[in-house]
Specification:
The complex is a heterodimer of chains A (about 425) and B (about 475).
Chain A (H helix, E strand, L loop, with lengths): L6 H6 L10 H13 L5 E7 L5 H4 E2 L4 H5 L12 E5 L5 E4 L4 H8 L3 E8 L7 H10 L10 H7 L10 E3 L32 H15 L7 H23 L12 H15 L5 E6 L15 H22 L6 E6 L20 E7 L5 E3 L14 E2 L4 E2 L3 E2 H11 L5 H5 L12
Parallel strand pairs in A: 1-7, 1-8, 5-10, 5-13, 6-7
Antiparallel strand pairs in A: 2-4, 3-4, 5-9, 8-9, 11-12
Helix pairs in contact in A: 2-9, 5-11, 10-11
Chain B lengths: L5 H10 L5 H6 L5 H9 L32 H14 L3 H14 L3 H8 L1 H9 L11 H7 L5 H9 L2 H6 L13 H10 L8 H10 L3 E5 L12 E5 L9 E2 L10 E2 L8 H13 L1 H16 L7 H13 L4 H10 L1 H4 L11 H12 L10 H7 L21 H17 L1 H5 L4 H4 L2 H11 L7 H11 L9 H16 L8
Antiparallel strand pairs in B: 1-2, 3-4
The chains are: A alpha/beta (about 425), B mainly alpha (about 475).
Chain lengths: ~425, ~475
């Protein structure tokens, strides 16, 4: 077996070696099975737009939560109780997060409060890139998951990671890996204007055409590689279409993406990293009040979708092989604006969910009193200051779950003070 | 199709969406500079493309009941695609796409706030076709080559933008920052030129830039609309101080009476629009759109374009004329040096492969799978461009669209070859490469394409063979890597 073929060679020229016949997908399936022997999955959930952490995990006994958010505060009587954090501050989940409360009560939801980094960017785009590179001083270059994938033994399976979103993310950018973005497995098949043998002739020609360009034509080779990866993954991705879940997923994009992920895990197609995103969190206006409104809809989407996924995996005995982590590019400002919304802030919220997770509340909540000596706030008391470096959460995932060396991937040792959720 | 002049083909791909036979006739005999003028001075051609919708000889639209491009977003998408295919003003549609990406307004949030009918109107109402202001896309289309300053101000007062970035609820007591931030980060000079304090000040500048409902209307009435309102009672009137000068003078926009407070925003945007850093950032984006996104913006190009921009008082028409005549644009090294956007790929495929019996509606879902739903950029920063277009699923969607279109055009394609061409596979290939315009193939790929024609039996040029092979060849070419560049 051609185990000496590196990913780079695969992209640049090695493709020709197995494009002569349809053996290529089988070859890659073997790799996938070999690499998937550990059978541990990571599902990264990105809440796009800057999630208002204070509305997700609510400090419902802090008087400043109510005084600074007179219109949008969720009444204390509505929050879903999850106890108190290490500093004794009582916290509750948003009332629409009944799904997450159930998972919390089963001991498989870890909440990491005040996750972030110093001098948090208030830009969506720079902020998302920083969470991707895992380097607050550099929002360009490769991402932490891309570097993880780069470090896998070659040849790396083109389906080692699966981006269920149509957009590309810095976190998934590597030097030798191009993570496929596949939003809809149902449309993931080879189409031809002809049928039968003529279509097969055409498909063979298409594969050979896509493998023709060498490294002297890097941009063309890049495009062709995306075509080659499509050909190489068609059958495995297609197998997910027939998946029959054991739980009912809500009919929205987020839940349906999770359904696809569950199908991929259940079919054992070899993918180990999944990226799922759901948007709408840039809530400058219309967050709603009394536990209802726009933000409540977002929470239903998140909580109900994750619960369906969790139960589906649980029913099939796959929960212990799955870790979800959730993040957003920043938290939002503490005081509401005049639009029943909140503007861009700093410290945010992370979660870890799944069989291997040691549930609970990690870190301490901010004191929302904007007094000058309050070290849990910044920006003249306007924003929450981070407490847990987001990279320490990444380190825990990489070291404790993915079997990787976090110091190499993150460019430093962030194991110290990492929340012990695994 | 190819004109025989590689530079003219390049102009059509970049300043338009490729060339059909009738497009080439329109510039036949012109010098290159005259052809540039034809593109840039598009006002000389009538804006009559909508009157062709539904006529034979043009690409079709699919109607579900009445065709309602002002009030139904899917029909609005069809109309825009139709325009891209058949417009006599290609650069106008091209710049509309550029500005649509630049300002990043998305239909879903707008419609989520005001409903599907009004939301579509806010995105795509053509002036005068239903009551109320023209939609966002119509606005950027109409002002595509005018002064950027005027465009920026118009967009700040555009109902779709006021919903999308929440300006409609920006009020005096608690200003909110969405538009104030993005107008600096994304629409003008970019990150690095301002502080958080500047964002707060900008938020206050735009307090009272709201919307009003026209009374007596209900939300799903096609006649209902909302329009910009400067709400003096909600304007925060105190002075706003920035870390940079406003229009080259003081760092402070002075306190004003509420009645004249709208001038705060006009001053602020005028200052931003004419700032050298905005000029440079626009020049960089124009480099990536018109010249190359394989190479980083050339500093000399950026300086030169920024200079034209400022000397022309932010007017874009002289800027585009300069770019298209510049040696950066015309040098052959920059031909096919940009990754095509899905809309460009789809429209060029239709223009080159053919459209008789094809509906642009059949391109809507494929475009989404390719990563570009018109009227729905992923966020206010617009689409991720360049290599980001070529995820695995997105490339597969391109290949499959090529297959869909080739299947639809199967018999038209087969019959398009002369008897002489049909006689030899090599001539069929040559003729197809006159019709479709990929970046030049090398011999390895040409041999592969020829090999495809000769696979499955000896070449006879029979009708059966032509029906299969012409469509298969068209799909292979349009689905090849070379065709994904413009």
């Amino acid at each position: 077996m051609a185990t000496k073929v590196t990913r780079r060679e695969f992209i640049r020229g090695g493709v020709a070696a197995f494009t002569v016949s349809f053996a290529a997908p089988a070859f890659l399936v073997d790799i996938a099975r070999a690499q998937g022997a550990v059978s541990r999955n990571l599902v990264v959930i990105y809440l796009a737009g800057g999630n208002d952490a204070l509305s997700t995990v609510i400090p419902y006994t802090d008087p400043f939560y109510f005084s600074r958010r007179p219109a949008i505060a969720v009444p204390a009587g509505q929050v879903l109780q999850i106890g108190s954090d290490g500093s004794g501050k009582a916290l509750g989940l948003h009332p629409r997060l009944t799904g997450l409360q159930k998972i919390f009560n089963e001991g498989h939801l870890a909440i990491v409060q005040r996750a972030g980094y110093a001098n948090s960017s208030r830009s969506h785009f720079q902020g998302t890139d920083i969470w991707g590179t895992a380097d607050p001083n550099n929002s360009g270059g490769t991402g932490w998951l891309g570097r993880y994938l780069d470090a896998l033994p070659s040849p790396i399976d083109p389906l080692a990671a699966w981006n269920t979103s149509g957009a590309t993310y810095r976190a998934l950018t590597g030097t030798t890996i191009a993570v496929p973005s596949i939003t809809n497995p149902a449309g993931y098949s080879f189409a031809s204007p002809n049928a039968g043998a003529e279509a097969i002739n055409e498909r063979n020609s298409a594969i050979r055409l896509a493998s023709a360009a060498g490294p002297d034509r890097p941009n063309l080779a890049f495009v062709n590689t995306s075509a080659m990866e499509a050909f190489a993954t068609l059958d495995r991705v297609g197998s997910v279409v027939s998946y029959q879940p054991s739980a009912t997923y809500p009919n929205n994009g987020f839940a349906q993406a999770l359904r696809t992920v569950a199908g991929s895990i259940a079919k054992g197609i070899g993918t180990r990293v999944y990226w799922v995103q759901t948007g709408g969190f840039d809530t400058h206006s219309g967050q709603g009040n009394a536990g209802g409104g726009g933000y409540a809809t977002l929470m239903s989407t998140v909580g109900d979708g994750i619960l369906a996924f969790y139960q589906d995996l649980q029913n099939q005995g796959l929960l212990n092989s799955t870790l979800m982590i959730q993040f957003s590019e920043f938290g939002r400002r503490i005081s509401e604006n005049g639009s029943q919304g909140t503007d861009h802030g700093a410290g945010g919220l992370m979660m870890a969910i799944g069989g291997p997770v040691r549930g609970g509340i990690y870190g301490t909540a901010a004191d929302l009193n904007p007094r000058p000596d309050n070290s849990t706030l910044e920006n003249a008391g306007g924003d929450v200051t981070y407490e847990t470096d987001f990279r320490s959460v990444y380190a825990k995932v990489l070291d404790g779950w993915m079997g990787a060396d976090s110091t190499a991937i993150l460019g430093g040792n962030f194991r110290v003070n990492a929340p012990a959720f695994i | 199709m190819q004109s025989g002049d590689a530079l003219l083909d390049h102009l059509f791909r970049r300043a338009g969406f490729g060339a059909s036979a009738s497009d080439l006739q329109a510039v036949a005999g012109m010098s290159y500079a005259a052809a540039v003028d034809y593109f840039v001075d598009y006002d000389k051609q009538p804006d009559d493309v909508d009157s062709k919708i539904g006529l034979p000889d043009y690409v079709s639209v699919t109607t579900r009941g009445q065709f309602s491009p002002n009030t139904n977003i899917d029909d609005a998408r069809q109309r825009w695609l139709f325009r891209m295919v058949h417009t006599r003003r290609p650069l106008q549609e091209k710049m509309a796409l550029f500005w649509h990406n630049h300002f990043g307004v998305g239909y879903s949030k707008v419609a989520g706030a005001v409903g599907a009918v009004l939301g579509t109107k806010m995105m795509a109402n053509r002036a005068g076709e239903t009551p109320g202001p023209q939609g966002h896309y119509e606005l950027v289309r109409q002002m595509a080559l005018g002064r950027f300053r005027d465009l920026l101000i118009a967009v700040a007062q555009d109902p779709a933008m006021l919903v999308f970035l929440d300006g409609r609820t920006n009020t005096r007591a608690r200003p909110q920052e969405n538009f104030g931030r993005e107008v600096m980060e994304l629409f003008t000079w970019g990150i690095g030129h301002y502080t958080e304090a500047d964002v707060y000040a900008a938020a206050r500048v735009f307090t009272g830039w709201n919307l009003r409902n026209v009374p007596g209307m209900i939300a799903n009435d096609p006649a209902a609309y909302q329009e910009f309102l400067y709400n003096a009672a909600q304007h925060e009137t105190t002075a706003k101080t920035f870390t940079f000068p406003i229009n080259g003078g003081s760092n402070t926009i002075p306190a004003r009476a509420a009645a004249s407070g709208m001038q705060d925003g006009i001053d602020f945007m005028t200052s931003l629009a004419s700032h050298p850093d905005t000029a440079r950032r626009l020049a960089q984006k124009l480099w990536n759109f018109f010249v190359s996104d394989l190479d980083a913006p050339n500093p000399a190009f950026v300086d030169a374009v920024a200079d034209v921009y400022r000397r022309s008082d932010t007017e874009m028409r002289p800027v585009l004329r300069f770019i298209l005549n510049s040696s950066w644009f015309t040098q052959s090294g920059n031909f096919n040096a940009r990754f095509s956007w899905p809309a460009e790929f789809v429209v060029r495929s239709i223009k080159e492969m053919g459209w008789t019996g094809f509906s642009v509606d059949s391109a809507r879902v494929p475009l989404t799978n390719m990563g570009q739903t018109l009227f729905e950029p992923p966020n206010v920063a617009g689409w991720q461009l360049g290599r980001a277009w070529f995820g695995t699923g997105q490339m597969l969607a391109r290949m499959n669209f090529a297959a869909t279109l080739a299947a639809n055009q199967k018999f038209n394609l087969a019959r398009s070859f002369t008897t002489t061409d049909r006689a030899q596979a090599q001539r069929v290939l040559n003729a197809m490469l006159q019709r479709l315009t990929p970046a030049p193939y090398q011999s390895v790929e040409l041999n592969e394409l020829l090999g495809y024609l000769n696979t499955g039996g000896p070449w006879t040029g029979s009708e059966t063979q032509m029906n299969a092979k012409a469509a298969g060849l068209a799909r292979l070419i349009a689905g090849s890597g070379e065709y994904q560049f413009v």
